Automatic annotation (TrEMBL):
Organism of origin: Diplocloster agilis
Protein name (Swiss-Prot/TrEMBL): UbiA prenyltransferase family protein
Membrane disposition: Multi-pass membrane protein
Keyword Membrane belongs to the record: yes
Location of the protein in the cell: Membrane
Keyword terms: Membrane, Transmembrane, Transmembrane helix
Length: 321
């Protein structure tokens, strides 16, 4: 009986180490897909079997590197997570997680990520190492950008830009993506992060406790978080609009629906215990999923369409009346 109890305890400990790597968050790495699509559209590369194989290697590499970042995040945030209504139940907070095994797991995930990255190309590897570095800068002192208001959002959302580059370099290493779409994607991520913080701050409901959980919350208010999210949304749509004007004017037709997506996401942040706090759980928001699917279909159709009348928006000459 005692031996059985020991085995159960070891199994629970192993589950704890797997859980801090957050494999359920791997769905976020779908953010590399737009990079693949944009690269294919702009470079004319064919989506052949070689691309599929590189995508599989690339997706797994991104999952392993992201999990390495999650591991150190969970360990270093344990003393703060105890103030959060739900994160206080994380394994590092409530279980007997050992530091040396956390470091072994961290190193192993990095090795797996690098090995998978090498199968793609060297520029892809550089992006994965950049993603890994951002995890260190975000979580580890003395820098720990997570504690600095506004910088916390901008540094975490920079991972969105990196994921776009990861998708791009799966397709090609001969070209660089347009800066307008990179900044637009970065600002889109900043909007998501600011909205997530707003939902978290609102859910905690006590500025003092919120400040103990996340140091940057000592400087935020609900109003400042909402205003910053609005700024990021405007910046994102501005730069994405520039990209559309320069590279695919037909996509402008989708812009009102993109505005609607930002509004829909912001609306969700007002819900009690909003899924915005846990983006990996957004699949439970059926209305949002339907909206995203419709938007994706619309964008896909527009990307492979040619509408001469849209050239009116880029004409520089005056029109006689």
């Amino acid at each position: 009986m005692l031996e059985l109890w020991r085995r159960v305890r070891k199994l629970n400990q192993l589950k704890g180490y797997i859980k801090i790597a957050r494999p359920d968050h791997w769905v976020k790495n779908a953010f590399i897909v737009p990079g693949v699509i944009i690269a294919e559209l702009l470079t004319g590369k064919v989506l052949d079997s070689g691309v599929v194989i590189r995508f599989i290697w690339g997706f797994m590499a991104t999952c392993f590197i992201a999990s390495a970042n999650y591991v150190i995040n969970e360990w270093l945030d344990a003393k703060f997570d105890k103030y959060h209504p739900t994160k206080k139940n994380r394994p590092v907070v409530v279980s007997n997680i050992k530091f040396h095994w956390v470091m072994v797991e961290y190193a192993l995930l990095i090795v797996l990520g690098v090995v998978c990255s090498i199968q793609v190309n060297r520029y892809f590897l550089y992006m994965e190492l950049w993603l890994l570095l951002m995890g260190v800068l975000y979580n580890v002192r003395p820098i720990r950008t997570k504690d600095i208001p506004y910088i916390d959002v901008l540094s975490e959302s920079l991972n969105n830009l990196i994921r776009l580059l990861i998708g791009w370099f799966i397709i090609t290493e001969a070209y660089q993506p347009p800066s307008s779409v990179l900044v637009g994607y970065w600002m889109s991520g900043a909007f998501l992060m600011a909205t997530k913080r707003y939902a978290e701050y609102r859910m905690i409901g006590d500025p003092e406790i919120a400040g103990k959980y996340r140091k940057s919350f000592q400087y935020y208010t609900e109003h400042s978080l909402l205003v910053s999210a609005f700024f990021y949304a405007m910046s994102a749509t501005f730069f994405l609009g520039i990209f559309m004007l320069k590279y695919k004017i037909e996509l402008l037709i989708a812009m009102p629906f993109v505005f609607g997506l930002f509004c829909f996401y912001l609306y969700l942040s007002f819900k009690e215990d909003s899924a915005v706090q846990k983006p990996e759980k957004l699949y439970k928001e059926k209305g949002l999923l339907v909206y995203i699917i419709i938007l994706i279909v619309l964008i896909a159709v527009l990307m492979y369409s040619r509408i001469p009348a849209m050239d009116y928006f880029v004409e520089t000459m005056l029109i006689n009346v």
